[in-house]
């Protein structure tokens, strides 16, 4: 198909944009990509890593297509595949793959987004089937992609009620549109214009006594017999719920990957502009190229370094998901969910900040739609709060650490976390002390021996994580004795979030360092190594208040870190173009008038 | 006129939006606001402060109107008033005020935006008049508001050539559109869709041998006689140029004011949402209001404090401009330009960051156009780079400080600055030492005696500024001896920018402190005082790495600052609503479905 099929629009109205994205989706459906991650028994490719990577690649183009494809094949198809059983796979997967059957993933409600456990839509078992109801305004399904215009079937998350008893949230297949019109009992409204992603038809869904058959329940983890008897291979309601949710982490991984790729695109645009654009003359009468200014280098080069870092962290995550397969050990699965959550949070915040920086670095030209950055900015904005609000996700990462992934930390109950922290932490922490020994050894060395030493970076990140985690555990443990678990948790919330963040920073640095180590081309390895230095030192510089406060850096060494970041910016400046070329953004997505005239 | 006239659109296409904004502009023209700042002799109100305040008020509504009105009455009309003489005032001001004559301010070119001195459009005196030419692509006037659709006359900045000699940049009145069609020799193109502000018709202007009469020169600061003889009351070309530019600072002041008001609106929306929205339950079964979470308070309350701070700084700036009148002493004028530049930079970056935070604080609802934040975000984005790129503006502030406002520091020549720094700085710095004495006295006091002491905040900000300025001056002085002025300046650029920033931070704190002092209602003064504490302590917290590195804070006190910010967030949380109500955003601009259902 023509490459132009995938160009992103700058001048389409909403309806035309939606139509174009649907057409692009259909073009994609004619390739082998959509079914890559599904079971080969139903026409899938059985290649989870390939599937995730192909979603990521959509991050280079119009992000509306990435999101619409993500809804169709990742969330909707993924739920059918991972929460359903043979009968669902047989009946739906081929039609979902081919795009013949378009669907929605109806989880979020008007009143509950992050707190999925308290969704209020109900699915009541009666007369051999389920009746789906929206009890009130707060239970209306909200922001549902594919709902306003194209979806026919929805995976609806609802509280299952059978025998008068509530069994918690389960997923049901519910037809929402028949022959282009809302199905009986289903009310669909359009969310209208959004800040971005206007090629995706987000809508609201309300259900009024909608009957579906017993087979509508996606019954891999729980079933209801003909007589209404409820059964599940997982005894605990909590555990079952989080097992179901856990299967859906691929969405978060795809968002993180797309965010990283959108960031690459913005940086490629900004560097090309920064190498062409000149402003102000030197005393010698030369007009200075923007990227020769230190302030401009400071804006773009550390961002390039962090984007490489996140690229490698993301690559490692995707490999792990791929290798773990569909039935990972529980501890591994918990750890993986945590890692996906953390990288999604850090990568999407990085995207928001960096694309903004890229826009400003291109001045007025960056504000024109034709120069690509406005759409990149508007489209990626929501990434920080959808597929898990970043603040909530970092909290989830911290809880995983605090509980040693030993339980369903995805349950955000503060009481549980405080208790865990109180009971389980001492032993976890005592295992780690090696980092401090290395740091103590290096403390006396000269700046230039230490600042570019990978061992020093790694141990510093590790030691920071240990110290922050230890501190928050102590605080929560002490606070747990105070009686008011919420107040105790809330009082430490910024500390908890910091725990999640420094943990992710450490994982990201490790992934980058590993990528440098395995690079076989020595020139490339040397360049990547310097870039990894810049990532590590920029991170340390940004957080140097903490390092100073906790005696990890002297003020002399802290100032040396800042100086080293400047040195690296100057040293890497000649490679800026080659570094963004290394992102391999397809040229068709870099066509902007400001880069041509 | 109906209040609804001024509602901002969420669903209009570009042409409809432009039409609506023009209609709003015409409605405004029927009030006495547009002419408030002009000379009473030509129908104006002679009230500069009132005029600036009325532009600021437009910052509460659709920012396209603020920008279009700013172009028409601030930039275009302002240039006629301040760069023109009696003959221009008589001929144009009334028609500009009434909106009968719509105009443009054609300064920025494709190749030169920040570096206005090197604009390349030419105005050649010949046969008793001027011929305006665009010599090449890089000289095309770019992003010109009012150009694509409505403007008839433009103030065009061009290199004046008379007698074969170039006289530098001057301003000329050039008709660009006659009877709705481009004037002969004028090519107008449309900049098309932008990230925001789509109600403003930005366009490009190119001139091919366009003849205008001798009276087209706005001749307050320079004139050309019938025989082509050039004369000016200001001898130095450089000085004349910056005197002309200096008269135009009102645009920057208006942008800063609008940015502050747009920020207020975003915060009012986010606080209302944060007080309604609940997510996750406490162990006691209460669903927690978002604003009761520490992380949420941390997102919004320091931003509210800084918005108040900037409000007062802006108010003080507007008063000063008003009081100085049209013929201020040169030093006062330079200092004022610097202050306007600095507050514009800090206020617009604060707007970009805070509106983004507000969007994220409202989750998915904040991403829907109907909930106002997307337009606020998209519209204000360009504020950081138009009317002066913020990075360039902070540099200008620093140069003012380095030269003691003794010359035309708006000239960004690096050579000049390095020389000034080398020659003039020692004396300036020796004058200031009192701050350190107070700080030394307070260094030994207990945290709780110091942290909420306004004297401590003020002296700490002052001392930081002195130290940073002293340091950069030493660096530049040393570097000046090295011979390569550009390299020396560039090497210190981040330090130079920091100098500008900490200077503005000090001015802003002083303005806030003065506002608290003059507040006569004791309850309000107490609340404002705590808010001022929060502003000061948040700023210190964000910059505590510097204070630690330079021995201004011990690590114990730095941690106490962080704890104090948390304490203040909790203490002020019950007043969040009253604080945003205090912004007095008209209720009609806060109507969002997410705040109603």
From TrEMBL, chains A, B:
One of its GO terms (molecular function) is FAD binding. Its EC number is 1.3.3.6. Pfam families: ACOX, ACOX_C_alpha1, Acyl-CoA_dh_M. One of its GO terms (biological process) is fatty acid beta-oxidation using acyl-CoA oxidase. Residues 246-402 form the Acyl-CoA oxidase C-alpha1 domain. Residues 104-210 form the Acyl-CoA oxidase/dehydrogenase middle domain. Residues 458-593 form the Acyl-CoA oxidase C-terminal domain. SUPFAM superfamilies: Acyl-CoA dehydrogenase C-terminal domain-like, Acyl-CoA dehydrogenase NM domain-like. Keywords: FAD, Fatty acid metabolism, Flavoprotein, Lipid metabolism, Oxidoreductase, Peroxisome. It is an enzyme of class 1 (oxidoreductase). Its cofactor is FAD. Signal peptide: none annotated. It is found in: Peroxisome. Belongs to the acyl-CoA oxidase family. This is acyl-CoA oxidase. It comes from Amycolatopsis suaedae.
């Amino acid at each position: 198909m023509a490459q132009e099929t995938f160009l992103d629009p700058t001048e389409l109205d909403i309806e035309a944009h939606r139509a174009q994205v649907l057409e692009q989706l259909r073009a994609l459906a004619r390739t082998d990509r959509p079914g890559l991650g599904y079971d080969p028994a139903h026409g899938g490719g059985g290649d989870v890593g390939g599937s995730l990577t192909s979603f990521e690649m959509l991050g280079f183009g119009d992000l509306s297509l990435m999101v619409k494809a993500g809804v169709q094949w990742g969330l909707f198809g993924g739920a059918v595949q991972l929460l359903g059983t043979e009968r669902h796979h047989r009946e739906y997967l081929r039609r979902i793959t081919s795009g013949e059957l378009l669907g929605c993933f109806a989880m979020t409600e008007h009143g509950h987004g992050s707190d999925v456990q308290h969704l209020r839509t109900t699915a009541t078992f009666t007369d051999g089937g389920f009746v789906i109801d929206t009890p009130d305004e707060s239970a209306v399904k909200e922001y549902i992609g594919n709902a306003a215009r194209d979806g026919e079937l929805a995976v609806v998350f609802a509280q299952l009620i059978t025998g008068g008893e509530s069994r918690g949230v389960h997923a049901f297949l519910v037809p929402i549109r028949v022959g282009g019109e809302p199905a009986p009992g289903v009310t669909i409204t359009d969310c209208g214009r959004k800040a971005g992603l206007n090629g995706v038809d987000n809508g609201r869904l309300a259900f009024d006594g909608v009957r579906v058959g017993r087979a509508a329940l996606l019954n891999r983890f729980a079933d209801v017999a003909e007589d209404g008897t409820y059964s599940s291979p997982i005894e605990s309601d909590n555990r079952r719920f989080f097992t179901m949710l856990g299967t859906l982490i691929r969405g978060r991984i795809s968002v993180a990957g797309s965010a990283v790729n959108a960031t690459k695109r913005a940086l490629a645009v900004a560097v090309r502009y920064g190498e062409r654009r000149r402003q102000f003359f030197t005393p010698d009468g030369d007009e200075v190229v923007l990227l020769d200014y230190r302030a401009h280098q400071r804006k773009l080069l550390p961002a390039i370094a962090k984007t490489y870092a996140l690229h490698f962290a993301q690559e490692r995550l995707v490999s792990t998901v791929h290798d773990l397969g569909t039935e990972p050990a529980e501890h591994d699965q918990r750890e993986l969910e945590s890692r996906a959550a953390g990288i999604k949070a850090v990568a999407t915040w990085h995207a928001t900040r960096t694309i903004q920086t890229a826009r400003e670095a291109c001045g007025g030209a960056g504000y024109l739609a034709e120069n690509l950055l406005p759409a990149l900015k508007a489209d990626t904005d929501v990434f920080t709060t959808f597929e898990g609000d970043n603040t909530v996700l970092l909290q989830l990462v911290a809880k995983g650490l605090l509980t040693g992934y030993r339980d369903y930390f995805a349950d955000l109950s503060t009481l549980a976390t405080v208790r865990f922290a109180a009971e389980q932490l001492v032993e976890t922490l005592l295992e780690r002390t090696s980092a401090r020994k290395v740091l103590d050894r290096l403390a006396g060395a000269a700046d230039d021996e230490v600042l570019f030493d990978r061992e020093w970076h790694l141990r510093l990140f590790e030691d920071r994580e240990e110290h922050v985690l230890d501190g928050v555990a102590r605080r929560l443990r002490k606070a747990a004795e105070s009686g008011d678990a919420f107040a105790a948790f809330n009082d430490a919330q910024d500390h908890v979030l910091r725990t999640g963040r420094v943990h992710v920073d450490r994982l990201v640095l490790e992934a980058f360092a590993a990528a440098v180590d395995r690079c076989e081309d020595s020139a490339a390895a040397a360049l990547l190594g310097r870039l990894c230095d810049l990532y590590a030192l920029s991170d340390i510089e940004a957080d140097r208040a903490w390092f100073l406060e906790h005696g990890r850096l002297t003020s002399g060494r802290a100032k040396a870190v800042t100086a080293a970041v400047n040195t690296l910016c100057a040293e890497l400046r000649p490679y800026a173009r080659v570094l963004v070329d290394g992102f391999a953004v397809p040229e068709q997505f870099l066509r902007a008038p400001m880069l041509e005239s």
